[in-house]
Give the backbone structure.
Amino acid sequence: MRIIFVTNSTSKPKSIHLVTFVAIIFLLFIAFIQGINWIDSKYNGADEEKKSLINLKLDLNLGSFQKNLDIYAAQIGELQARLIRIDNQSQRLQDFAKEKLKTNEKIPKPAPIKSSGQGGPFVPEKNLSETELQSFIDKLTLDIEKHEEYYNNLEAIYLKQSVFKDTLPNASPVNVPFNSSSYGWRVDPFLGVRAFHEGLDFSADVGQPIKATAAGIVIAAEVTPEYGNVVRISHGSGLETRYAHASKLLVKEGDRIKKNQVIALVGNTGRSTGPHLHYEIRMNGESLDPRKYLQF
């Protein structure tokens, strides 16, 4: 079957097979549908991409927020630990004071916490910004550091007056100054996080003599996972010194030790990154700052 097209009375009629006409219409229809689908897919794709970007931004913001929370939590946890140490130290100083120790040494005064008159109009509470919160934590940290220094100095003065000369741990345990890691907060060399270091580290060669800083009795000469080969000496009245990471122990439990007696050799045992002596002073189990007692 043919379809005849007549454009005007003078032109020659044109004809086309019906099958061909239907095929052309069908192809145009298919092309139209595909065009619609393409436009729709592009629109939906852009919309999905936009949603993905929004979700990614939210994830990044939440991740940053959580990271900041973790940082603040760690800082607050550290401050809490330091406050507990100060509280314990304060209790020990009260016990010393009860004994009415006499000393000619000048007693340091604590750093005052500034205070002033208060007043003014009431302003409702508001949430602190991250900057304000960090500023508050920094100020609190500074105040704690001042009081730690005061209590450490005061405790050293009291301790020097409360024990006999030979049992005061004021000698150097090795013939080198401490030069590896000091007493106090530091970044843990194994975990990479802040942790409290309860002694002094003396970097020295393996085999160098380790000497007792005061006279006393050996209460332990053993191997532990943390300290490695360690010697613990009691000096009476709850006072104790510890000498860790030794390569060899030269004393045993129960031995009476004289001041400056060689008790072990420097090593690299236990939780250690290299040859050194880890040295501690403790009073009733609580660590003291050895720097307040050592005389080089």
About this structure: The first strand starts at residue 2 and ends at 5.
